Amino acid sequence: MKKIFLLPILCSLAFVACKPELLVTPSEPTKGLSGSWQIIKATRNGTDLTTRFDFSRFRINFTDSSYTIDSLVPFIVSRNGKWSFDDPTFPFSLSFQPTDSSARTSPLQYPVTGGQRNLIISFSPGCSLNTYQYTLQKAN
Amino acid sequence: MQHQPVQHKPLVKRKPSAGVIWKVIGALLLLIIAACSITIDNVAIPGSIKSGDVLPITLNVTITTNQTQTSNFMTAVLVPKVWKVAQNATITFTSDITSGDQAMTVIPAGTPAPQGGGMDWPTLLATKIGNGGNLLPDYEWVAFYSNASYSVDANATIHATVSIKIKTSPDNLMFKLGFCVANSTDGLSSSDRYATAFPGCFQAIGTGDPIDFCNPQISTVDPRASLDNDIITLTFDGGVQSTALDNASQVYLCIAGITDTGDSLSVCTQTDATRMTSLGLNKWQKDIWPRKLFNLTDNQHLTGLRYFFTDANGNNKVGYAGGASPFLYTFKCQ
Description:
- The complex is a heterodimer.
- Chain A is mainly beta.
- In chain A, about 10% of the residues lie in helices and about 40% in strands.
- The longest helix of chain A is centred in the first third of the chain and has 16 residues, at about 1-15.
- Chain B is about 10% helix and about 40% strand.
- Chain A: It comes from Niastella soli.
């Protein structure tokens, strides 16, 4: 007899418990560069220069759209200016627009190594036959 | 004294095991594969030419096959980077199994070489074959494939004559050229599947600073092509000849930058900025960024460098060939 009373209650609870599942498509976050970055590795035509040349004081400070450079070394640009990605969600190149000269663009790799985001750019600051690759990491 | 029991094996004719059969088959296959070979029989190349002229080279190649195969023919050249061979060379060949000149085209860098473990042809050639004894790093392998692929019969001997024409740069240089032939199926998978030739030191006689890849130099500059906003590496090798710095415990750079207006900017004090790093065996190295070293303004540009090496007091100074004239370096980008 008790079971007969329980059945409608259980049925009504089952109806209340069922809700349509809300499906949310996962979205890739846009990438940002904000902060101060330092050079942790530098090569010239594949030769590692990291410990041979003093890159230690170089810093590039990115804000939402601008950058400033401290203690310049041979770099893709030598003046402060604006920066942009080709695609903020999936960036494959990084452009620098110095305030008083033409824009320069570098192919970009943006891997996470050892839990740290790296920024790898390639460019020719002098002769175009020479390719430099710098790996930058956020400075503490 | 105990006598050990002697076991006599029954004299029964045993069948060879499956392992033995496979070993015999493997050995036979190896013999068949090993029978395929490619050789460069000779290289016809002038000992020197005038810089800027076309350098003609002929390779006589023999290919012996023991199995049918369809492949593209590959020819690679080891050359100074400054020649830009990918843009300035044409390679063709004639052979017993083709009619007329067969065209070849540069294999784009990054194209994986067959059986090359993911490496492209230039990387594989540099890794497996090397630099041909060139002492400066500004060399490159440039590889070409035949535009067509060719089927070869088993047990055939094919003769090919490869014609290489390179438009050289105006640079005054000595270089040990190298050549490699192979095919698009086997790559450099084993030493009998490719052939190399290194005919010795070749000279392109031009004007300007001599670039000698063949002989040890008392001082070198890397990279050879650079501008004043590059990082350039100067080395001093005191092991090449006896100099006034044979016993120096520290070596410094004494250097002048020559501007495009003819001014000479000198940095010749013994400081951290000019102190060279010891590489051992009386070899020293310094990486400089000329724009910073000479405090150039935006409007100043360097056309060249004149430099010496000195000891910590600056009293003993070594110049070109160990003498009193400075070493010279010209900034250029070609």
